[in-house]
């Protein structure tokens, strides 16, 4: 496939046109847009949102989106590919959980929409507050089929298999170690790239029902560090002028609907605005850390955050643990034992995560996931603790060839029945990771 071109930046106002002169010279809705196009606005925030937070884009397309047949129900194979707080599919548990690499039956025959299944969530998309975490397993491209989500934004994280994601704004290539965000209401179609016969792509999705992902504030870190604005990429306008029947699937109030239309939904010739999908290469993350002693809080690994109404508290933080140098003196270097007021759902994308080096019980292997719910104690396994407690504290690089991610939320995540009972991938003896921790307590001798 030819290499794609991109615009750079995060949250910028972008002007992009596939044909020179397709953007109106004056105003967003001229009486007759260039080339006989239709003007259509897509809003990501309320019209009256503060200027600094207002998000919207103008699309100049061959036909307006309203040209389609009536909605009809759509039934994906996985009925748990959505979340709402009163779903009968919920099977909540405070138990620490870890999964072997997740997969769906007949995954090689599924496309992206049909290959989603929900692990956990909180809140309600109808009232636009909360989030859900899904896994996708798909071996087929979406052929004349598109999808848009009225429930929230989707942060897509491939773990195996590259994706080519066509959107109304243009196309994004998203291989493993890249992420992509497609916001609420934007139509897209996912092609799997370079898979062998019988293979499937796998990854994870964090769906937020309220607000949008943004870059975290840097505070005392200063102007530089973490994810840089310039490393985010948005698509260049591209259009498809095809008169064929398409199926468009819509996720709405945790249900699935579809309609037919006689033309491609990707017929946008030009666009102008700041409500645009984007991708980011996780390898570009500039990791911060201690150069004296102790652990900075793991928030220093935050790539994107979706803030709640409470300052400093997130509906979802997207956090990564990339290869990095450790130099702290007199410090237990792996992540410490911890009980959090947040929920932590982690995924191992590649390699060996430095806080879970043991492979007993299956281990925290690439493609696998774990969930440590609110106030559930967690930390390094017994083997990792023993090794780190005796290690020579010289500068060392950890995580070579690895990448782990975390979706962290201030909400309590309720797991689905599929995730804990039906997937067949829960490691039932995960609790034994800490069973071998020895007692070292030696009180002083009595006088």
TrEMBL record:
Supply the EC number(s).
1.13.11.5
GO MF entry, a single one: metal ion binding
Q: Does the keyword Membrane apply?
A: no
Per UniProt, Fe cation binds at 338, 344, 378
Q: Which InterPro entries match?
A: HgmA_C, HgmA_N, Homogentis_dOase, RmlC-like_jellyroll, RmlC_Cupin_sf
- Which Pfam families is this protein grouped with? HgmA_C (PF04209), HgmA_N (PF20510)
GO CC aspect terms: cytoplasm
SUPFAM superfamilies per the UniProt record, alphabetical: RmlC-like cupins
Family classification: Belongs to the homogentisate dioxygenase family.
What's the protein here called? homogentisate 1,2-dioxygenase
Species annotation: Tilletiopsis washingtonensis
């Amino acid at each position: 496939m030819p290499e794609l071109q991109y615009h750079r930046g995060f949250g910028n106002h972008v002007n992009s046109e596939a044909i020179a002169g397709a953007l109106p010279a004056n105003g967003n809705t001229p009486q007759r847009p260039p080339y006989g196009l239709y003007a259509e606005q897509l809003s990501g925030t309320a019209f009256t949102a503060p200027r600094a937070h207002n998000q919207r884009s103008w699309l100049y397309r061959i036909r307006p989106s309203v040209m389609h047949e009536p909605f009809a129900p759509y039934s994906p194979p996985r009925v748990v590919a959505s979340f709402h707080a009163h779903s009968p599919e919920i099977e909540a548990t405070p138990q620490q959980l870890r999964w072997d690499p997740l997969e769906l039956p007949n995954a090689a025959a599924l496309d992206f929409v049909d290959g989603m299944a929900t692990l956990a969530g909180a809140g309600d998309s109808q009232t636009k507050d909360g989030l859900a975490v899904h896994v996708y397993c798909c071996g087929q491209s979406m052929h004349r089929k598109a999808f848009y989500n009225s429930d929230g934004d989707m942060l897509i994280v491939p773990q195996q298999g590259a994706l080519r994601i066509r959107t109304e704004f243009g196309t994004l290539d998203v291989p493993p170690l890249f992420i992509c965000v497609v916001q609420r209401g934007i139509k897209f179609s996912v092609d799997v790239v370079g898979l062998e016969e019988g293979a499937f792509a796998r990854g994870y999705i964090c769906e937020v029902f309220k607000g949008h992902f943004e870059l975290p504030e840097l505070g005392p870190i200063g102007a530089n560090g973490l994810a840089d604005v310039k490393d985010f990429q948005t698509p260049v306008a591209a259009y498809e002028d095809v008169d064929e029947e398409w199926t468009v699937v819509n996720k709405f109030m945790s249900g699935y609907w579809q309609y037919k239309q006689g033309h491609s939904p990707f017929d946008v010739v030009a666009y102008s605005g700041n409500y645009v999908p984007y991708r980011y290469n996780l390898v570009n993350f500039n990791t911060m850390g201690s150069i004296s002693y102790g652990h900075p809080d793991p928030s220093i690994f935050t790539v994107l955050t979706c803030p709640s109404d409470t300052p400093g508290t997130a509906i979802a933080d997207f956090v990564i643990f990339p290869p990095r140098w450790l130099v702290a003196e007199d410090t237990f270097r792996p992540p410490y034992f911890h009980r959090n007021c947040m929920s932590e759902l982690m995924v191992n994308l590649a390699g060996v995560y430095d806080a879970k080096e043991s492979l007993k019980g299956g281990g925290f292997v690439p493609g696998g996931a774990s969930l440590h719910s609110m106030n559930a104690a967690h930390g390094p396994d017994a083997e990792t603790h023993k090794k780190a407690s005796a290690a020579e504290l010289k500068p060392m690089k950890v995580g070579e060839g690895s990448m782990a991610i975390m979706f962290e939320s201030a909400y309590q995540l309720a797991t689905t029945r599929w995730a804990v009972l039906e997937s067949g991938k829960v490691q039932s003896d995960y609790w034994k990771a800490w069973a071998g921790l020895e007692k070292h307590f030696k009180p002083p001798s009595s006088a």
